[in-house]
Amino acid sequence: MDLINVEALTFQNKTKSMWSKSKVTFDLGPVSFNVKAGETLAIVGDNSSGKSLLAKLLVGLETPKSGKIFMNGVELNKSNISVRCHDIRMIFQNSNDSLNPGLTLGSILEEPLRLNTKLNAQQRRSLIEQTLRQVGLMAEHQFFYRHMLSDGQRQRIALARALILNPKVIVADEPFAALDPSVRSQAVNLLMKLQLDLGLGFIFISHNLGIVRHISDKVIIIKDGKVIESGKTDAIFNWPKNEYTQKLINSHQALVNGQDNQR
Length: 263
Fold this sequence. Notes:
This protein is of the alpha/beta class. It has helices at about 50-60, 80-85, 95-100, 105-115, 120-135, 150-165, 180-200, 210-215, 235-240, 245-260, and strands at about 5-15, 25-35, 40-45, 65-70, 75, 90, 170-175, 200-205, 220-225, 225-230. Helix 7 links the parallel strand 7 and strand 8 (about 200-205). Helix 5 (about 120-135) packs across helix 6 (about 150-165). This is ABC transporter-like protein.
């Protein structure tokens, strides 16, 4: 069975004026896909294509105009919002901005546990320490503040916050964009290990085609809010059908060849 199944999801962003009718400024969808346990779906497109908006729809930060989202065959709606909070978690693009500088890392990780579980203080602390170790940090990091961490460690805290409720699906919105290449490689390997160990489904939003090709099983290409191509990763990269997809792949290949020639 699919972990998550999205059916014809759409969204319209409108502007309102006192003297005129509402005007649609961005139209997303329809978007449909499914993700199974241990599977990674990559969402690819240029800036402002609708990738991050789709992520917000999946985790409930925005409300779709139409369409349905199912978790393990159960439709997500207002009556079971807690299911979404537990089962779909998000890693935001800029981990530095998403971490409150005035709170210890332990307090940041404890917040979703206080809001979404009935664990007592000792149980919460034990789970926080376990999750920190799971992402390659020490239990003592719970007493640290954001400014005391490197970029790579901040990203691990963002991952720990996503994992701490034991989700089934993680939506990662450009999680490696701010990391240098060596740290990025470590973060990618950590994500892949956790996916293997925990059977997670990943929805990976990125414009980095090198990482997309390395970690994803399936790819959806979005342009101006519309899905223009989707399929298995190997098929998309080796036999793209759409001119826009071909352009993205050619640009990536040119960049890779240019880096190789500089070595």
